[in-house]
Amino acid sequence: MLVARDVPDKYQQLRLRLEIEQGRLLSWGHSFGLLQEESEEEDASRISIPEQVRYMVQGYIEPLWQKVLHFTAEAPSFVPRDKREETPSVYHGGMARRFRLDRMYAKARQGTIKFKDRINWAYWQMDKLEDLVECMRHVNGSVIALAEVKTQQEIQETVKATLMGLLSLQDTVNGLKELVVAVEEKHLDNRSSQMPLGEPNDLLLGLANLKKMRLQIGHDKNDGSLQSDLKIQPERVWPMNKMKYPSPQRQDATLDGKEGFWVEYKDYSSSEQIAGPTKDEIERHIVRELAALLISKLPSSFRVARCVGYYEEAGSFGLVFEKHAAHADQTIIPLSHCLSLETQMPSLGERIALAQGIVQAVFQLHVVGWLHKGLRPANILLFEDHNGGIAYDKSYISGFEDARPVAQPNLTEEAHSRLLNDDWYRHPDIQTVKPAHREFQYCMRYDLYSLGILLVEIALWKPVLDIQSNVGPGDIKSFILSHNTQCLQRIQFAFGRTYAEIVMNCLDPGEEMDDHTQMDSYIYYFEKLVVKPMTQMSVD
């Protein structure tokens, strides 16, 4: 049903709800080891089901199965499957890989139900589909409630990660609207339930609305009113040379005479001879969309300062950011400066909070469809706290001069070596010292690599180039991951095994995190292998 063809718009929300419920059911089955082949070795994490619970589960599942059989039997129209055709179910394939369902689907195709052809959706009645979705929702709630509290929470986390993957793949305004409605209905479900399934996915809803707004802006990018709302007259902005720690791409500024702002510059070339996006493309597809994204109400965990607009002057665009009210009169302190003060190492708790904030921000930026392309300590901004120290738990990601939407690979610009040490934070494929670096299209995994280097620096509290004097940017990855160098052991000693594993997952992710081919899988495993374990770290 999830791969049916020609689904009318009015059914999209129901199909999304069906996908959500399928994800919940699969997560439950996976937790109990029910998706394993009989020939597979026993999984230590597999939960045995007591006999009395098994009978109760069977009582819930059997009516649902009969309803599915009856529902599909009534579909009168089948059409041949076109192998070249993309599946309309945006993360159906991702779940199949995640839960290893390929063999299960193969068996189903050999059975009495013929799944070799695609069902034509047009003849199904909405009331019957609503009844099926409601039945599946009730069954899920019932069987999950039979599990232990810890298992219920694990199922909820798996479903949330799956929904993040679904969100990352939705690339239409209408699709995101339907996703928001479907998830909101699921929230009402959870809030009215007594099952301890974790906090409502307010972050998921916030990111879905944020991405929906960004896509809407993409459709309206030629709207003059939108441009007038975002574009600031240059005379309203007055850059100041007051920064204690100056940067070539960042300046303190006043807006309409008021302090508490700073400007970040996005250069463009006026020459038509230079390859890359034109000035007009940079403004319409990058600067304006980025300003519109960051001018919105962002989730509190989206650690990016609010943008109030942009202006154009002297061969560059200036993005104007507003300091948080608590830091309006305080100096911006880049993480690069803090790392140079090795004698003033913050506490373990402060460094964990710093790492958690950066990880969450990068993850959420990827979920809404943006690449940062410049993650390094100079672009992690900190401010003083009320006691005159540094508020490490209130970090902000900055430095969007090279950022672009994931869906706009044609806007990729050649990496700028503004600083000699930037290559230390670039993936080995795209380091500018390598002649072949232009052959690689920037992807999320490259941001993930930069994140891993940042996490190493936070753990050891020193710049990456000072970790080993005789190692260069091209060798730093192998140096960190090698068992012979004991670098990972030092990280594990400082922060624990979980943190060291997060670093490994960032620097050397598996094939399931190849965002070129499996966007939903990348988001799912980013959340599972990096975000979740990092969020759970704490200092007792």
Automatic annotation (TrEMBL):
InterPro entries in the cross-refs: HeLo_dom, HeLo_sf, Kinase-like_dom_sf, Prot_kinase_dom
Domain Protein kinase: 250-540
Short name of one Pfam family: HeLo
GO molecular function: ATP binding; protein kinase activity
Residue runs in coiled coils: none
Keywords: Amyloid, Prion
SUPFAM superfamilies, A to Z: Protein kinase-like (PK-like)
Gene3D superfamilies reported in the protein's UniProt record: Prion-inhibition and propagation, HeLo domain, Transferase(Phosphotransferase) domain 1
Domain of life, per lineage: Eukaryota
The protein's name in its UniProt record: Prion-inhibition and propagation-domain-containing protein
Organism, as annotated: Aspergillus minisclerotigenes
Lineage: Eukaryota, Fungi, Dikarya, Ascomycota, Pezizomycotina
